[in-house]
Design a protein that fits this description.
The structure holds 2 protein chains of 2 kinds. By secondary structure, chain A is an alpha+beta fold. Helices cover 28% and strands 28% of the residues of chain A. In chain B, 40% of the residues lie in helices and 20% in strands. In chain B, strand 12 and strand 13 form a beta hairpin. In chain B, helix 5 packs across helix 6. The chains are: A alpha+beta, B alpha+beta. Chains A and B meet through strand 1, helix 2, helix 8, helix 10 and helix 11 of A and helix 13, strand 6, strand 9, strand 10 and helix 18 of B.
Amino acid sequence: MPVISINKKYLYGLIGQRMDDEKLADYIYKLGFEVESQDEKEAIIEITANRLDLLDAVGLARTIKNFMHKSKRFHYEIEDKEPAITIDVDRSVGRIRPYISGLVALNLELTEESLLNLINFSEKFCETYGRNRRKIAMGFHDMGAIKGGLTYKASEDLEFVPLGKQEKMKFSSVLEKEEKGRQYGSIIKNEKRCFYPSLSDSEGPIALIPILNSQRTKVSASTKSMFIDITGLSEYAVNKAAELLAASFMDMGAEVRKVRIRRNDKAVLAPEMEKRYINIPISRAEREIGVDIGYNNIISLANKMGYEAGMVGNKIAFRIPEYRLDIIDAQDVIEDIAIGYGYDYINAMPIAYSQPGNLENRTRFNRKLTDIMIGLGFFECTNSYLTNEENNFDKAGLKRESHAIMLKNSNTETITMMRTWLMPSLLNNLRLSSHESMPQNVFELDMAFSVAEGKPVESYRLAAVSVSPKSNFNEMKAMVEGMLYAAGVDCDISEFNHPAFIDGRCAKLAFEGKEVGFFGELHPRTLKNFGIEEAAVAIEMQLDPIYPRKS
Amino acid sequence: MHKYEILVLEVLKRLHTASLERLCADSGLGKDEAMWALQNLSDAGMVELRHQEREKITISDEGVEYAKHGLPEEQLLKELNEKQIKVSSLGEKERIGLQWSKKLGLVDIQNGELRMTDKGKAAANRGFDSARALKEIYEGKGGTAHKSILEELSRRKLIEVERRREVSEVAITQKGKAAEMKASESIDQVDRGVIANESWKSMGFKSYDVNVKVERRVPALKHPLKRLIDRIKDAYVSMGYQEVSGPAVESSFWVFDSLFVPQDHPARDAQDTFYISNLDRAELSKIPHVRTVRKAHVKGWHAKWKEDVARQMLLRTHTTSVSSRYVYNIVNGLKTDPDKYTLPIKLFSVGRVFRNETVDYRHLADFYQHDGVIIGKDLTLSNLFDELTKIYAFLGIKIKFKPSYFPFVEPGVEYFAYHEERKEWIEVGGAGMFREEITGVKRSKISVLAWGPGIDRTLLIKDSSISNISELYNNGIGWLRSRREV
């Protein structure tokens, strides 16, 4: 989830009132987010991934003001005037980064604080919703420095003075040498040749998209008018982002103007500021939340959550605020009503229900077997399902087999596969514990994994190990027979060889003619590999074949 | 005189003074037996016990980690020396470093950035005494460090200092040398003869010192996680839930797509989720639900939906995939045969989930989760609050609710459990009402309540002897034997 840092002085300025730390934390909590920490100057806040309108102080102030019933601004419209600039979209961008939207903000009165807030917002937005600029990126430009109309195209390796530099650089060297170039270059890189999506005015490039802007159009706190470009892979996303930004600039007191986007001789105006309504009967909201709300109250709750609302027929029409990218349908609006109502005020209501509950048969059998093992003096262990070939195969003297489920992309070197049996996990648990008193008895009853004909096989197994200077085959056999007897499982025991065990001191277990496990005395080689310094005996068996078929 | 006392005195008459170990070896007595006899002889003034304080320092797993890589605040200062650091960019591990650095006054925060204080600069130059001491202990050079440093390390649970008063040596007194060593006439061990002949009537019993020190027997125990899982399952069953289960190695379809997680969601990245390299892709063509899911994604997320992405096999990141499978089957079953089910239906599952974490002593890549789901008509958010409150009440835990967001529920809920000892609320899980996109059916016909909290976190609340989750998966025999049933 995105974590944002908010300048509290700026936030309270926008809200129009200061509040103490607890009050701020309480509003944030009731809205569904959390203040991670705060001091006099700033608050670190965790926002859920859906609320892209709350990634900065402007959005947060707007929402808190509504929540406090201090605001009457529920929608954001742009006056019908001649668009402030035209962007011609060349078809060459079609394959790499097809969509662009934008807006122009006039009469800006920026401060260092509000500019920083804006830039932080854009970075956070492009990192989260923009999937690190791949899906969406945006750039701020000084409108006064732009000459003529704009062209968005995938160009050859042009030159411009990138932001923060004095000298001209080629696009290719920006990608190679500049920090942002190295960070985001892969978004536009192509194996065979490199296209450079760029935005140019009559004097040349103003941005290498989505990497870096030009020094020429750099914005500062004294910038009076701004052009903002928004580019990306989804037409819906770039248009909605433009609407969200338009609302923010209006809240900052700017006049927002549309831009004309011309593609294949077809022109549209952006941001569209689409008017959206969702109609919901009060009864539906009440039925899903489980509270009585009533007409007057629901309008007030809607306003509190930033919606303008009114009665249409027997339904309430909610006007969806332009900055709310997350509202898909009525379900989302009903959640907002519940948040406005307050989760703390929703009383718990029991469900009428009278069916008996039950465990799976397997769970009952596992519990029985666990009780038996504990009765035999074995401690229960719980180990990770994840392991590596060395632990799962090599140390036990097994060949590395292809029937293990292998992980494609583990971030940890020691994790490469899912365990195929449990005994190695237990032997690792007992590693280097010879200073503890003997015997050391442990067991685990849990899952192991394998592949059969390309499909995963998940099975329950039981393994137990006993380490003691006195352990031998007969002791383990006595334990195994006692366990099987108490569990009511009939198994045949016969001679067996297993690389982890000593030949002639190992046996297999068969249930209804099918091999289900083995036990015996571990080979000194195995013990040494696992760092065990005394003699040890072990059993490993599959449980799926012996689970009762009926309860 | 008891025969153990005689054995001890015989040895001491020969040696005059002896260590406890020597005494045991020469007399053939166990430590408990020898101590019992010595205590009696000491009370009778026949031997003199000499005690010694012993200090044993053990280093914790966390301590080992820091001894190898430096204390977290030390690591943070080192990093801060090299570059600027924003608070918001800190990882979980670095936040521990920040907490300590702030506590020790080494850094402060300005405009969301970390600044080294003068004290911090000095510490960065000079190094940390506590880090040096920890390293020495780890390398077995022992606790030569100053007492206050050992105390600090101990408070941070990086080491454990144990002081024990032990009998180091025993000496015989004049009275002991003169004592007449005759086996007592009273009964020591009750045997067949004593019972049959009723000899106790004339002899009486040798009495035991009830304060004698014995070595505690250690009963084998269930693993604490499995014990809690039993309790959670019992809670569900007591409220009428049926247990169900589903695959841990699962397709993207059931883990993500069927739960309305967009195909470009960061949780699906290889950075966060384990994908499998040697399995066939899941076969989805026979599942009619795929059409519903595709439609929901295209409409809701304004993006193409690729079946190939949904067919990838991975390790599930939540057990909600099990709920998703069952909800689909039941909703589908209700369409064809409405009489087959009585609504509401309550189901739960417990299982492992996986995250592609960088594993160290604190972070694990797999842990347990449970998932509950109720499928019914006109279920409400207030019903959800009621069910969850009751399930946790069964476990003795008080919970509260707050709004939150997960792609598959609306309204979304996050809930917190009250930690009685720490007097704070701890996040335990997410919950909500499944979106219509998941069921493919209007809520006016069917509604579904669902939740999926972690189990390990709940255990930390129930058992204050467990300080971090990875401790649960080490299973060291010493740790297992030190456990108490909670």
